[in-house]
């Protein structure tokens, strides 16, 4: 199982952790939400917990709850800028469909 960050995403994680003055990693997760069933959650982790899986990519760390790994295994996370907006964007091979607004997704059976 693996989750990777592009160079841009890794730099963004490092910058945000430095700006916060604390934290060890980007915390990725999945929650039930939206019209398609699931949505990504992003936060910063101050600790790696017992039920977390730790990944390192481009000198930045990512943590994911082990019970959520199957939803995002094999994903690459990028950091993109579109006009005035900037955000983390998933390239997730486990997605079957996304909703029209792009905020939620369903998984392959």
UniProtKB/TrEMBL annotation:
> One GO molecular-function annotation for this sequence?
2 iron, 2 sulfur cluster binding
Q: Note the SUPFAM superfamilies from the entry.
A: HesB-like domain (SSF89360)
Name the source's superkingdom.
Answer: Bacteria
Q: Which InterPro entries match?
A: ATAP, ATAP_core_dom, Fe-S_cluster_asmbl/transfer, FeS_cluster_insertion_CS, HesB-like_dom_sf
Q: Which Gene Ontology terms of cellular component type are present?
A: cytosol
Q: Name one GO biological process term.
A: iron-sulfur cluster assembly
Domain Core, by residue range, is: 1-103
Family named by the database record = Belongs to the HesB/IscA family.
Protein name stated in the entry: Iron-binding protein IscA
- Record the organism: Nitrosomonas stercoris
